[in-house]
Amino acid sequence: MIFYEIKISYTRQTGEDNPAGVKETYMVEGLTCADVENRLIEEIKPFISGEWEVKTCKQVQFYDLIPSPEGDRWYKARVEMITIEDNGKEKRKAVSIFVQANNVTDANKTLQQSLNNLDCEVVSITRSPILEVFRAV
Q1: pLDDT of amino acid 16
Q2: What is the pTM of this model?
Q3: CATH topology classification for 64-128
Q4: Where exactly are the structural domains of the chain?
Q5: DSSP states of the chain
Q6: CA distances (Å), 48 to each of 9, 20, 55, 88, in order?
Q7: Three-class SS string for 122-135?
Q8: Which of 9, 21, 75, 125 ranks highest by number of CB atoms within 10 Å?
Q9: Per-residue pLDDT for 13 more than 70?
């Protein structure tokens, strides 16, 4: 799976007379930046009025994506995966995991449940600027 982080600025229709300019970050699964930019615009088109501009589009590397229907925010967890090499030495590899949750506590709980059978250590969990993740259709 290839995901891209896209930052976009546009005018959002707020239901009031004065539309608001916003800058938002999304993560979209796709093959190229052009592909995911087009997909994102189609997804958010009902909320856009006027001009929009893609500020950045970059590929995102991560180990796993853990969605939750109850979660309304995305958190980025840094996790060290621990393995023992043939010579008996411990090897640690840092990976990123995105977790959907309502707060850091819920994100940690969901992450711990997901990593239950793995030998690893959660290093940090921070709130991500990502508003929504769009998987490939």
Answers
A1: 66
A2: 0.86
A3: Ubiquitin-like (UB roll) (3.10.20)
A4: 3-60, 64-128
A5: --EEEEEEEEEE--SSSS-EEEEEEEEEE-SSHHHHHHHHHHHHGGGEEEEEEEEEEEEE--SEEE--TT--EEEEEEEEEEEE-TTS-EEEEEEEEEEEESSHHHHHHHHHHHTTTS-EEEEEEEE-SEEEEE---
A6: 10, 10, 16, 57
A7: EEEEEECCEEEEEC
A8: 75
A9: no
pLDDT on residue 11: 79
CA 47, 48, 49: angle at the middle one, nearest 5?
125
Do residues 76 and 96 lie in contact, with contact meaning Cβ atoms separated by under 8 Å? yes
pLDDT digits (tens, 9 = 90+) for 114-135: 998 889 999 999 999 999 999 9
pLDDT of 50: 76
d(CA 28, CA 6) in angstroms, rounded, equals 8
The residue among 1, 55, 67 whose CA lies nearest residue 28 is 1
